[in-house]
């Protein structure tokens, strides 16, 4: 459906309605209170648990000690991207398919891209809040030294923006996978969980066997986590990565490829409703 | 499309699920400003017909045109002219009545005033309540409100008053009468025949995937089925006569027995006529089966 086929509807309507959807989606997200809110706070809860549980341990080297909070912060940042985007949207949209929300929208003149803008906007808002809370807790509760140089925050910004976008689009693409709204959590959470375990979120990536690292390198989460490590870990830790460097070019390329894959799958598979179901 | 063209035009519509026919060869028109009631038992194909016209389902064969557009290919501009009240909804409802209506009003180019619509569906006291906290009947009113918020030219009402208390139903009838006065064309399905009789201009009866009768709401079923019944008791025995000459019959009874006991004149309601139509159709089907049996 192109804008040219709807001459009497105001131009630029797709974006305006998209922004109106962002407000609507953010409002309803925080009113759910249960599952979505849990995935919102989850990285924060885990960061706290890990930081407290391993508070006596040095997770760096003798020369360059590293607190548990500092060690886990990049992973939790990456987990936040995955949970706010992929997990949240895949489950949310599958549920909206199941409960008739999409059927109702399908009967209105709301353009599909406006709906997506609303969902992605919601992921950006919650993702930014989540990242901000992680930084505050790491700094205030666990006295972690955050980077002060602008050259660290620039990669943080683009890894975050690219990561949130890719994760959100993949969430929309995966929302077609569960066969019903009720099965959505059971289908999506294991996918997200496995990715988190093999991508260096809960387990140190350098401690995984070489072949598993290679498998994880196919997926975007490993690269998002690596991008976050480049921001928050000391320079020396780059030698522990698979190529011995932070490889930010790799981070950008693999994540962007998944963004394109997600867009293509969404374009091919997303329908308001399954006709004749 | 000119103003004399029907708003909805259906010709020889067929729908099959695999080899199972949902309905076969349904044809009807709905004219501008008219309220058309589609009646029939559960599973007769009413909702499938409506959902094809709303663009939710594909037809197997036949022609359909809604506001001059093939509903299988309707774009956003087309949807902006429709109002849809689906048979059932189960959204999470984490918005208030007012928030939901304000948001949906924003989707349409010429939407109605939110306050007016909230008042029209009788939810002024509940406008700041989250939709999930409303009762079933109140949620249904929100569905109706969302259906009319965009000032539709054509409104689909699929069993709109299910779960309404009698007062809410009367209020809804007034709302629909107001919409009719504004010139809205309406396609209504309902199991309440008094509702169909009150609101409908014409009706179609669909059963077993066939349209078995169609006509004005006071013509459907034929003149015969509308002949009133005079009923009274005579010597403890109930007597009844079907007649169009009510006065004469009553006068004759009075001349014969004096003031009759339990005298009643019964005009068949739409419900009586409808049930008779279905019964006649079932009897006809059974007779056909017997004839064709080996």
From TrEMBL, chain A:
* GO CC entries: ATP-binding cassette (ABC) transporter complex
User: Where is coiled-coil annotated?
Assistant: none
Q: What is its main location?
A: membrane
Location relative to the cell: Membrane
* Tree of life domain: Bacteria
Q: Which Pfam families match?
A: ABC2_membrane_3
- Record's keyword terms, sorted: Antibiotic resistance, Membrane, Transmembrane, Transmembrane helix
Q: Which GO terms describe its biological process?
A: response to antibiotic
- The yes or no answer to whether the keyword Repressor is present is no
Limits of the ABC transmembrane type-2 domain: 34-269
**Transmembrane region positions?**
36-54, 66-86, 123-142, 154-174, 186-205, 248-270
Task: Report the InterPro entries cross-referenced here.
Answer: ABC-2_transporter (IPR052902), ABC2_TM (IPR013525), ABC2_TM_bact-type (IPR047817), ABC_2_transport (IPR000412)
Q: How does it sit in the membrane?
A: Multi-pass membrane protein
The molecular function terms in GO held by this entry are: ABC-type transporter activity
Q: What is this protein called?
A: ABC-2 type transport system permease protein
UniProtKB/TrEMBL annotation, chain B:
Gene3D superfamilies assigned to the protein according to its UniProt record, in alphabetical order: P-loop containing nucleotide triphosphate hydrolases
Question: Where does the UniProt annotation locate this protein?
Answer: Cell membrane
Alphabetized GO MF terms: ATP binding; ATP hydrolysis activity
- Using the record's annotation, list all stretches that form the ABC transporter domain: 8-233
Q: Which GO terms describe its biological process?
A: response to antibiotic
The record ties this protein, via InterPro entries, to: AAA+_ATPase, ABC_transporter-like_ATP-bd, ABC_transporter-like_CS, ABC_transporter_ATP-binding, P-loop_NTPase
Mind listing the UniProt keywords for this protein, alphabetically?
Antibiotic resistance, ATP-binding, Nucleotide-binding, Transport
Its main subcellular localisation, reduced to a broad class, is membrane
The record's annotation in PANTHER family points to: ABC TRANSPORTER ATP-BINDING PROTEIN (PTHR42711)
The protein's name is: ABC-2 type transport system ATP-binding protein
């Amino acid at each position: 459906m192109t804008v040219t086929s709807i001459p009497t509807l105001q131009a630029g309507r797709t974006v305006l309605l998209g922004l109106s959807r962002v407000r609507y989606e953010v409002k309803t997200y925080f009113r759910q209170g249960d599952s979505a809110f849990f995935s919102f706070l989850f990285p924060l809860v885990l960061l706290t648990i890990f930081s407290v549980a391993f508070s006596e341990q040095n997770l760096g080297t003798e020369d360059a000690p590293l607190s548990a909070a500092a060690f886990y912060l990049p992973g939790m940042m990456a987990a936040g991207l995955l949970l706010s985007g992929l997990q949240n949207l895949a489950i949310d949209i599958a549920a909206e398919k199941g409960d008739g929300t999409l059927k109702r929208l399908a009967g209105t003149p709301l353009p599909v891209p406006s709906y997506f803008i609303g969902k992605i906007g919601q992921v950006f808002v919650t993702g930014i809040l989540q990242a901000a809370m992680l930084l505050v807790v790491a700094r205030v509760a666990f006295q972690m030294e955050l980077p002060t140089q602008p050259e660290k925050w620039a990669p943080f910004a683009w890894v975050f923006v690219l990561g949130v976008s890719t994760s959100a689009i993949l969430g929309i693409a995966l929302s077609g996978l569960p066969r019903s709204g009720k099965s959505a959590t059971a289908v999506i959470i294991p996918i997200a969980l496995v990715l988190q375990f093999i991508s260096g979120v809960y387990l140190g990536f350098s401690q995984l066997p070489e072949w598993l690292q290679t498998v994880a390198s196919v997926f975007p989460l490993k690269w998002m986590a690596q991008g976050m490590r480049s921001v928050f870990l000391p320079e020396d830790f780059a030698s522990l990565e698979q190529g011995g460097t932070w490889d930010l070019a790799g981070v950008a390329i693999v994540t962007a490829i998944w963004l394109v894959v997600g867009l293509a799958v969404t374009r091919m598979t997303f329908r308001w409703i399954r006709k004749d179901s | 499309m000119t103003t004399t063209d029907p708003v909805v035009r259906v010709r020889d519509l067929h729908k099959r699920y695999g080899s199972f026919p949902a309905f076969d060869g349904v044809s009807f028109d709905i004219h501008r400003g008219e309220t058309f009631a589609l009646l029939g038992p559960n599973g007769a194909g009413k909702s499938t017909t409506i959902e094809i016209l709303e663009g939710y389902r594909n037809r197997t064969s036949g022609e359909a045109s809604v506001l001059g557009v093939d509903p299988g290919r309707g774009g956003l501009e087309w949807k902006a002219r429709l109002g849809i009240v689906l048979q059932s909804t189960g959204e999470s409802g984490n918005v208030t009545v007012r928030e939901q209506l304000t948001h949906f009003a924003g989707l349409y180019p010429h939407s109605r005033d939110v306050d007016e619509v909230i008042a029209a569906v009788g939810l002024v006291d509940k406008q700041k309540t989250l939709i999930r906290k409303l009762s079933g009947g109140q949620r249904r009113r929100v569905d109706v409100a969302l259906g009319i918020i965009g000032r539709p030219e054509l409104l689909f009402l699929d069993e709109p008053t299910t779960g309404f208390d009698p007062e809410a139903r009367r209020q809804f009838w007034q709302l629909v009468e107001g919409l009719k006065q504004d010139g809205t064309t309406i396609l209504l399905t309902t199991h309440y025949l008094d509702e169909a009789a009150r609101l409908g201009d014409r009706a179609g009866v669909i059963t077993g995937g066939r349209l078995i009768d169609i006509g004005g709401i006071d013509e459907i079923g034929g003149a015969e089925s509308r002949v009133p019944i005079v009923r009274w008791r005579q010597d403890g025995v109930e007597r009844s006569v079907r007649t169009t000459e009510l006065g004469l019959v009553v006068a004759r009874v009075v001349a014969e027995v004096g003031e009759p006991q339990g005298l009643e004149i019964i005009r068949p309601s739409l419900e009586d006529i409808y049930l008779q139509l279905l019964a006649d159709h079932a009897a006809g089907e059974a007779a056909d089966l017997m004839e064709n049996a080996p």
